[in-house]
């Protein structure tokens, strides 16, 4: 690609970050005596925010003296504001708990490891999936509480595909070529596009690339792997073909993405399991949705019908006003409380990032919204097949460069 030199510079910057750190003066301990108000920053009202509100309501039944303020902020906003506060040493303005996406966390820990509560001895991390534990750690210490796994799946409207003559069986074990062929026929019969496409955002590229066991960086997490990355090239080629074969609905940003499937303007959604809560927002579509494994890249010998999109964990700021109370709350509700996690499976459709989900009674529950499929069990089975990659610390920075290059490639027809 034309701007490989930018990625080389980015590779150098990753090494620079690994040698840097930030600190500041801690909030005086007397501030801990202030009213026990725990402040949480997270995103997604139907999923993360809803889970935090449920946890707060449950916790306050036995801890009436603790007030919990939950604020909705965008992912980028949380990172920017937290980093600005830490850099300025304005600890009195810190939230107590923030949610960080798995793609971002290593960069944050490289810069601010000393600013987070060390949870190594607070939680039994053996119960969590190994890849999530690795993401939440640095230098052998644990700083995050794993939340959702981000297991990717193909969510589709059975009523729409049936109009084109397809059945549930036809949506199993798909290749991307087969998926696109179904999309063409669905569009021809119904006028409904197969999926949303946003050329300025690359979750689908990430989904396809990880399904082939690859990422933007090599397994060391530092060496940029773009120029000779066959899985990345295949992902971009599939994305370009999806655009050119006229089965995608163009959207710009999160709100348009959500609106499209909630309004029935697309036949499928390819995303992480966390999207279930947004799908279920439109109860008029109950019974019309189904879940299947993602398509595979037939031309890639490493291809698997499993991948990951997003996923996140909770982190506690060590020098916030009420970090101790925040730690007690988070460990109690999200670190040790299997009964509460079981409720989250039922109410927001979470796929817990644990090794043994069978401990949850709702694990095998049938979901009427999805035609009585055992959705959590299906997604957990897919999670077992996800290939582990090292996300490194610069996913979105690399994508900013690639997205610009991709726009040019769409014009001149050259992905090299």
TrEMBL record:
Gene3D superfamilies: Periplasmic binding protein-like II (3.40.190.10). Residues 49-76 form a coiled coil. Keywords: Coiled coil, Signal. Residues 1-20 form the signal peptide. The keyword Signal applies. SUPFAM superfamilies: Periplasmic binding protein-like II. PROSITE patterns: PROKAR_LIPOPROTEIN. InterPro entries: Bact_solute-bd_prot1, SBP. This is Extracellular solute-binding protein.
């Amino acid at each position: 690609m034309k701007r490989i030199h930018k990625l080389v510079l980015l590779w150098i910057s990753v090494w620079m970050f690994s040698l840097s750190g930030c600190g500041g003066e801690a909030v005086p301990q007397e501030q801990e005596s202030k009213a026990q108000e725990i402040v949480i920053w997270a995103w997604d009202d139907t999923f993360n925010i809803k889970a935090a509100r449920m946890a707060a309501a449950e916790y306050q039944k036995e801890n009436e003296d603790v007030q919990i303020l939950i604020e909705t902020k965008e992912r980028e906003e949380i990172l920017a504001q937290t980093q600005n506060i830490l850099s300025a040493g304005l600890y009195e303005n810190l939230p107590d708990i923030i949610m960080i996406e798995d793609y971002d966390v290593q960069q944050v820990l490289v810069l601010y490891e000393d600013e987070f509560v060390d949870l190594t001895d607070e939680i039994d991390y053996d119960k969590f999936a190994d890849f999530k534990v690795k993401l939440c750690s640095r230098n052998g210490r644990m700083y995050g509480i794993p939340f959702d796994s981000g297991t990717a799946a193909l969510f589709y409207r059975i009523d729409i595909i049936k109009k084109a003559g397809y059945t549930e069986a036809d949506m199993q074990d798909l290749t991307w070529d087969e998926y696109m062929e179904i999309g063409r026929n669905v569009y021809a019969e119904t006028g409904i596009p197969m999926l949303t496409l946003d050329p300025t955002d690359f979750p689908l590229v990430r989904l396809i690339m990880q399904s082939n066991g690859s990422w933007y960086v090599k397994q060391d997490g530092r060496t940029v792997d773009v120029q000779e990355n066959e899985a990345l090239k295949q992902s971009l080629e599939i994305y370009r073909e999806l655009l050119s074969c006229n089965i995608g609905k163009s959207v710009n940003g999160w709100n348009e993405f959500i609106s499209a499937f909630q309004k029935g303007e697309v036949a499928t959604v390819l995303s992480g399991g966390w999207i279930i809560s947004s799908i279920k927002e439109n109860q008029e579509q109950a019974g019309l949705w189904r879940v299947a494994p993602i398509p595979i890249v037939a031309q890639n010998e490493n291809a698997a019908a499993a991948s990951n999109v997003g996923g996140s964990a909770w982190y506690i700021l060590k020098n916030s006003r009420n970090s101790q109370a925040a730690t007690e709350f988070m460990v109690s509700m999200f670190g040790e409380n299997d009964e509460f996690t079981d409720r989250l499976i039922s109410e927001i459709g979470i796929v817990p990032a644990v090794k043994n989900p069978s401990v949850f009674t709702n694990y095998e529950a049938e979901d009427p919204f999805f035609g009585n499929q055992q959705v959590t069990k299906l997604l957990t089975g897919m999670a077992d097949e996800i290939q582990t990659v090292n996300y490194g610390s610069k996913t979105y920075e690399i994508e900013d460069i690639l997205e610009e290059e991709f726009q040019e490639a769409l014009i001149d027809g050259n992905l090299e």
